[in-house]
């Protein structure tokens, strides 16, 4: 079969559909053909060679460290073996002194840590106590709104026969029985509040109070109720007035506003100091 009769090994077609022959390489002077590289085998890329080199370096480093760790104690023992008894005694004494100093430093640091923890806890407890005391004083002074359980004292006086001193006595008895916050007809009673009377009407801090008078008290309800019911106390005095009706009942939730006009204070300062 001629080359034109059919395809031959290594032949390919071009764009015209004709078959052309790829020439075989010419023999070298020695009679040998040159080596033709297989198209499927390529030289390793730079990335592969880099990681191969890195693995070799890591393996060598690990081997060196392992050998050093194994040979270190032997070298140390050999070094100690070459020392004289006097040198060994001095080394041991130096190590003992250093160990004692470190133990003392450790103990001192533990004591310092315990003192710091104790002082921190004491400071926290002192801050909590200060905050609680400030809160109690603010409630007592009436400068903050409050809510809580307590009781209500309602005095119905349609004929206007109750004087302001009866309400003052009620406030005092409730305070003595543990009332933490007081209000009358929705108006807060503070440490500087005052009752007065004008034109047959009772006034609280200069504001007239309509009847009935409702006294709210936040605190231990049972104790305050017992204080009001003492023989000869506020309840007996109010109920002895003709036409006056008094009711006392407990409440689980009373709400009181702050004073409308809280008191202001002037503090003394050294001469020449800034306010």
Describe this entry's structure for a reader.
With 275 residues, this protein is of the alpha+beta class. Among the domains are: 60-141, no CATH class; 147-256, Alpha-Beta Plaits (2-Layer Sandwich). It has helices at 46-81, 85-141, 164-176, 221-228, 234-239; strands at 12-13, 19-20, 146-156, 181-184, 187-189, 195-198, 201-204, 207-208, 213-218, 245-256. The strands form three sheets. It has a five-stranded antiparallel sheet. The protein has a three-stranded antiparallel sheet with strand order 6-7-8, covered by helices on one side. A two-stranded antiparallel ribbon has the order 1-2. Helix 3 crosses helix 4 (221-228). The chain starts with 11 loop residues before the first strand and ends in a 19-residue tail after the last strand.
CATH class of the domain at 147-256: Alpha Beta
Main beta-sheet strand count, sense and barrel state:
5 strands, antiparallel
CATH evolutionary superfamily of the domain at 147-256: Protein of unknown function DUF881
Give the strand content. 15-25%
One letter per element, helices H and strands E, the order comes to EEHHEHEEEEEEHHE
Supply the number of helical segments. 5
Structural class: alpha+beta
General shape: elongated
Number of strands: 10
Uncertain segments: 1-41
What is the name of the CATH architecture of the domain at 147-256? 2-Layer Sandwich
Compute the average pLDDT.
77
Order of strands, main sheet, comes to: 5-4-9-3-10
Distance between the termini: 122 Å
Helix content: 40-55%
Rg: 52 Å
What is the CATH third-level topology name of the domain at 147-256?
Answer: Alpha-Beta Plaits
């Amino acid at each position: 079969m001629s080359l034109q009769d059919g395809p031959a090994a290594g032949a390919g077609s071009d764009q015209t559909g004709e078959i052309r022959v790829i020439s075989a390489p010419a023999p070298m002077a020695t009679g040998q053909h040159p080596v033709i590289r297989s198209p499927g085998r390529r030289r390793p890329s730079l990335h592969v060679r880099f990681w191969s080199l890195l693995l070799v370096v890591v393996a060598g480093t690990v081997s060196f460290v392992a050998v050093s760790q194994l040979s270190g104690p032997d070298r140390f023992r050999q070094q100690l073996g070459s020392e004289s008894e006097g040198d060994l005694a001095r080394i041991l004494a130096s190590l003992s002194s250093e160990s004692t100093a470190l133990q003392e430093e450790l103990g001192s640091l533990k004591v310092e840590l315990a003192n710091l923890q104790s002082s921190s806890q004491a400071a926290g407890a002192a801050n909590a106590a200060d905050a609680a005391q400030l809160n109690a004083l603010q409630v007592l002074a009436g400068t903050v709104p409050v809510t809580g359980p307590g009781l209500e004292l309602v005095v119905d006086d349609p004929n206007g026969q109750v004087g302001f001193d009866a309400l003052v006595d009620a406030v005092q008895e409730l305070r003595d029985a543990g009332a933490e916050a007081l209000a009358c007809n929705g108006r807060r009673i503070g440490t500087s509040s005052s009752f007065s009377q004008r034109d047959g009407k009772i006034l609280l801090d200069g504001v007239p109070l309509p009847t009935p008078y409702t006294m709210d008290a936040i605190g231990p309800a049972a104790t305050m109720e017992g204080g009001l019911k003492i023989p000869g106390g506020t309840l007996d005095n109010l109920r002895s007035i003709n036409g006056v009706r008094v009711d006392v009942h407990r409440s689980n939730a009373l709400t009181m506003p702050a004073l409308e006009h809280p008191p202001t204070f002037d503090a003394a300062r050294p001469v020449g100091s800034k306010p």
